Amino acid sequence: MKIRQVSVFIQNQPGRLLAILEVMEKESINLRALSISESGEFGIVRMIFPDADRGIEALRDAGFTARMDWIVSAEIPDVPGGLLNNVVKPLSEAGINLKYFYASTDATTNKTIVVLKADDLDKADQILTGK
Amino acid sequence: MIRDARYEQMSRGDLDKLQLERLKAMAAYVYDKSPFYQRAMKEKGVAPGDIQTLADITKLPFTSKLDFRDNYPFGLMAVSMDKVVRVHSSSGTTGKPVVAPYTQGDIDTWSDVMARTLATAGVTENDVLQNSYGYGLFTGGLGFHYGAERLGASVIPTGGGNTKRQILLLQDLGTSVITCTPSYSLILNETALDMGVDLRETKLRVGVFGAEPWSDQMRKDIESKMGISAINIYGLTEIIGPGVSTECPYQCGMHIAEDHFLAEIINPDTGKQLPYGEIGELVLTTLTKEAQPVLRFRTKDITSLNPEPCKCGRTHVRMSRITGRTDDMLVVKGVNVFPSQIESVLLDVEGVEPHYLIVVDRQQGFKSDYLEIWVEVSEDIFSDEMSKMEDLEDRLRSEMDSVLAISAKIKLVEPKTITRTEGKAKRVVDKSELPIL
Question: Which of B93, B275, B297, B389 keeps 20 to 30 A from B282, CA to CA?
Fold first, then answer.
């Protein structure tokens, strides 16, 4: 399924992630998933909200540089080989290159939610939805 | 057309001879007539007789803008007031204005160099010249006016402002040459378009622009929008006003009127004269001025000199477009760096906003072994993909390296990290003054 992700630019310094989370708390915005990539002096924080519009608005209002992108999310079983057989292998066989991905597991349902960005997003979505 | 072929096409040897002769006379004249220069020369231990070669000019004292201020209004003058026929003045936005008195002889010289400037720019007696430089204390208006009259062009003295009427006159009177600041030419063009007038379809063919810094990119823009040849000129109130140097239609540097002004390039740090071709501070000496002659005026403008005779046939040395002011100059690892160079690199990268900060480690005056450039990340250049952000960093770094000839560290920062100031932005900070993040 294609979903919207909000990314924020931060400097790689103590307190910056805190500042983002404080905005979320203040605005009572729930966070479904989060990942951080860092490169020396700066980082990119990627987030999935139940309501992406509200999330990005709150961050922009707080002065952050933020952007919205389409990515793909897929629900897979939390079993050995789950990621391999349900996501990585089918995409690899279709010649699709992953740009980044992150995941969160819900122990109560034994399901893992994977979100990812690929060079051919529509094709990746088709393949993962077909599974 | 070459107006003063005798002077403008003189061989380098004859020019040197002429300049030496005039420099000797000038040194004797100011020593005799200007108490300010007599004092300054005595302090430096130099007498007029010490000037035997052109290289001896380095024995003479410099004159700075501060000298004009400290001796405001007429402390540098070399004639009595009854010989003065006109006084101009700089705007004085940064303190007391610089006052420029002229004798009748000076007005004649100025008219000649301005007529030459216009002729060099490609203007002839058959042109209709609309002079949109401000008339009054500012040297631009009357300087161009007298020069254009001396050349024999038909002058329309519109001065600045009332832009709609300027467009009307430009059309109805068949203006072929416009003289104004480069930024006013863009206003003229916009107003013309609003009025439904395409300046490319008028008789306008040449623009002679100066009095403010502008870039080659802006020139191309003006030329294509207005359908003209846009000529860059240079001048200063302290020296004479406009008329010090101008481009010819080949647009390959501004020809300095070397029979009237002697140009040097110095290292602004040490004051040492630099050879032709090297970039440094322009220093000008008037060779024929009467009311307020100036020895070795430190212009604070950064340029270089090219003595190769030009394709147009003129032999006078050419100065390159002003690339910055010494006030802004930094020396990083022994290389001169100007904030304007850094800004131009940043602005060339799509989406990069002009919010930047230059961080140096200034333990020794303006010298630094360290250069870091902070660039605010706007939404236009932000990507959710790390590889794209790293590409941006790499691109900025390599563009910066090739323009500055030294390596700079690029630091991408969050918006509003760089303090906004009202008016002139503070672009250079020392490491010790960095905001705490």
Answer: B93
Instruction: Please give the average per-residue pLDDT across B196-223, as a whole number.
Output: 92
CATH top-level class of B5-326 = alpha beta
**Rounded to whole angstroms, what are the CA distances from A117 to A10, A103, B384?**
20, 12, 10
Flag if B385 and A9 touch (Cβ within 8 Å).
no
The parent domain of residue A22 ranges over 2-70
Q: Pick the residue of A13, A38, A42, A71 with the most B CBs within 10 A to test the interface with B by mutation.
A: A42
Structure tokens at B339: 């904030």
Output DSSP code: residue B364: B
| pLDDT tens-digit readout, B46-89 | 999 999 999 999 999 999 998 998 999 999 999 999 999 999 99
DSSP state of A40: T
What number of other Cβ atoms are within 10 A of residue B48's Cβ? 18
Which of B384, B414, B415 lies closest to A69 in CB terms?
A: B384
Dihedral through CA B196, CA B198, CA B199, CA B201, nearest 10? -130
Judging by beta carbons within 10 Å of its beta carbon (0-12, 13-18, 19+), is residue A5 exposed, middle or buried?
buried
Identify all chain A residues contacting B416, using CB atoms and an 8 Å cutoff: 63
Give the separation between CA A68 and CA A8, rounded to whole angstroms: 9
Tally DSSP H helices, then E strands, for chain A: 5, 6
ipTM of the complex: 0.89
Whether residues B377 and A9 touch (CB distance < 8 A) is answered with: yes
Say which CATH topology domain B329-433 has.
GMP Synthetase; Chain A, domain 3 (3.30.300)
Q: Which two tokens stand for residue B150?
A: 């001396």
